[in-house]
Amino acid sequence: MDKKRIVFCDFDGTITQNDNIVAIMKHFNPPGWEELVQQLMDGKLSIRQTVGRMFAMLPTSRQAEIVDYAIHNATIRSGFGAFVDYCKEREITLLVTSGGIDFFIYPLLAPFPIPREHIYSNASSFAGDTIEILWPNGCDEHCDNDCGMCKTTIIRSYDPARYHRILIGDSVTDFAGAKLVDTVFARSHLIGLCEELELPFYPFETFYDVMKHLEAMDKHETDIGG
Ligand SMILES: [Mg+2]
Ligand SMILES: [Zn+2]
Fold this sequence. Notes:
single chain; 226 residues; alpha/beta; Rossmann fold; 7-stranded mixed sheet; binds magnesium ion; binds zinc ion; 2-hydroxy-3-keto-5-methylthiopentenyl-1-phosphate phosphatase; EC 3.1.3.87; 2-hydroxy-3-keto-5-methylthiopentenyl-1-phosphate phosphatase activity; hydrolase; HAD_sf
């Protein structure tokens, strides 16, 4: 039986060239944000705690400036638009699974025909004095990493008996998911992590590389099937 292909695609550093949360923090530079990152690296804070506390240091009075900076500072990786079309034509489900924040992800993805329900991210509220991050996609009972936006929870909700699961990512926050799926496309830090565990992966720099490999996989399957 043919399995249906589904893609779990990271956003920051994967669909965009760089990490947007880091870019926002570097630019607005609220005192103490680097210490929070250090505590995350040392395993003293979870991703959810770190991201929540970093944004809580930014005043909502600067909302327009912050949103504007995030959107205009980001660059979409080459080939992404073609990849969205490619998935649509091949009936491959494309899910964006991101630990980023709604206020920059939705505007940056607006030019592409991706249904809103296929975009998973954290949310935000500008109702108080400082930015509050909301967590509508938390960890299930199988994950105790306190992810905030739990990628493995989403991956687990697609039965491996029915789906060929494909992950595209760039960093440590994609690693747990990479261990679960059938096919991994990796760049940057995720390459080193996969190599350490001898986890098979395809390296990529642009989405044209990803499409090339998916085409080759197709051809291979056709050859085997006769
Ligand atoms: Mg990333
Ligand atoms: Zn989790």
